[in-house]
Specification:
The protein is an alpha/beta fold. 42% of the residues lie in helices and 12% in strands.
Length: 444
């Protein structure tokens, strides 16, 4: 076989020398396009990866990828940011859309619209989504055809690349603090003028339909409702402005109650807001409706009453009345708080490991953390592509060489069976060698 192959190769070289111009004019494989068409007919052919030379230039020259906000969220026309060992340029200036250094588009979920997208989308353009709100805010984002458009995500879901599930919880210390906690003795005394339950909500009739449930609950137990929804009790005048909802004075009013109705506006896994964290921080037992996975985030197994455990509002009302009358059973829901003992290891780990803070000047906010997360992942892709272009490309070249050799042998074998014998085989080999990198790959 080896001597036969050398003979064929010699004849090919001679033939090429004699009919250079003729072969160039008549060969059906003389250009790359037709060559690729021919080679793709054979399963032995392996496509050679195309190295990303622009990627290598970025790494070698030390220039930085551009991350373009497709929303005016940050208001920054241009900012170079250091993210660990990586540097990226962030901007809201859309004139960078077609800049060759633009590697990612950042979207804010509230502003996201399918009618205004940076199209056409290049293969090297990553899309990143930041959306801390519930699906109520922009329901399209949580449908599979939309959410799968994004390479990087930061949402309330624990499955996001940057999870914002605990975005309303400042720290573990805020949970265990007794700053606002009112003693049970005082709460029992206040029950003479306060209902056992308190409800504060001004966003009425949301997708969770919480108001319908609470209206039914009111038929079975007394509830003080300070908000616009099902309103029956007024706050002091200086607390009636929505901006006062995070004031110490407002917290002190809520802390006097035994139970707080904590109903989310949407029922989604991991969507947990201040409605849960606030009563836990104040030393009040939350009566919770919302995330089906809330138990994964509670400070202890007995720190909240879950609506899902009761078939009817009437049953819930009876349970709360029983706790209201039994100090020991009621205090069981506050034991974790009074002892400062959080048994939920997942909650402890998430708070400890998150790269952003809530009202913490010593840490980045979650938007900065999102930007750096995308920057880091973009650079990881750049390095991966560069490494593949160097290493994987060499391996693919060797595979291609072997594949083209086998293809050549196959063509020669077919030619020998046809009329013309060795001469026909020589022509096959001449055309093939002329347009392939066979000899180069064989040497590699």
């Amino acid at each position: 076989m080896a001597s036969f192959f050398l003979l064929i190769t010699f004849q090919v070289v001679v033939e090429l020398g004699r009919s250079e111009q003729l072969t160039s004019q008549n060969s059906v494989l003389r250009n790359d396009a037709s060559r690729e068409d021919e080679l793709q007919k054979y399963p032995l052919f392996f496509e050679r990866p195309k190295p990303d030379h622009s990627t290598r230039k970025k790494l070698h020259k030390g220039t930085y990828p551009i991350l373009l906000w497709w929303s005016p969220l940050t208001g920054e026309s241009g900012r170079q940011a250091q993210c660990g060992e990586d540097i990226c340029f962030f901007t809201i200036n859309r004139t960078y859309q077609h800049n060759p250094m633009t590697r990612a588009f950042l979207f804010y979920g509230t502003d996201f619209s399918i009618h205004s997208l940076p199209l056409p989308r290049a293969g090297f353009h990553d899309w990143a989504l930041f959306h801390e709100e519930s699906p109520k805010n922009n329901y399209k984002l949580f449908q599979a055809p939309t959410i799968t458009l994004f390479n990087h995500t930061a949402t309330f879901s624990r499955h996001s690349h940057l999870s914002l599930t605990t975005q309303y919880l400042e720290s573990i210390k805020a949970l265990t603090s007794l700053k606002y906690t009112v003693s049970l003795q005082k709460k029992n005394s206040l029950r003479k003028r306060l209902a056992p339950l308190v409800y504060v909500q001004s966003d009425c009739d949301p997708p969770s339909d919480r108001d319908s449930y609470i209206k039914e609950l009111m038929a079975h137990i007394e509830i003080d409702s300070y908000g616009a929804c099902l309103h029956n009790r007024d706050l002091p005048e200086h607390l009636q402005n929505p901006s006062s909802m995070d004031s110490d004075s407002f917290y002190k009013i809520l802390a006097q109650y035994k139970f707080i109705l904590a109903f989310e506006n949407s029922v989604c896994e991991d969507y947990i807001t201040e409605k849960l964290w606030r009563p836990l921080k104040l030393g009040v037992v939350p009566v919770y409706y919302g995330s089906p996975t809330v138990q994964d985030w509670l400070p202890s197994n007995k720190s909240a009453i879950l609506i899902k455990d009761f078939p009817h509002p009437r049953d819930l009302a009876q349970y709360i009345k029983a706790l209201d009358a039994d100090d020991k059973e009621y205090l069981a829901y506050l034991e974790w708080k009074l002892k400062g003992d959080i048994s939920n290891k997942q909650l402890l780990a998430v708070i400890k490991e998150r790269t952003w803070g809530v009202q913490d000047i010593m840490k980045d906010n979650y938007i900065d953390a999102f930007e750096c997360m995308v920057c880091t992942r973009v650079w990881e892709n750049i390095r991966r592509q560069a490494k593949c272009a160097e290493n994987c490309g060499q391996a693919a070249t060797r595979l291609r060489g072997k594949a083209e050799y086998l293809l050549l042998v196959n063509l020669i074998g077919k030619a020998l069976k046809k009329e013309g014998g060795i001469f026909a085989a020589s022509l096959y080999a001449a055309n093939f060698l002329r347009i392939s990198s066979f000899s180069e790959n064989l040497a590699a």
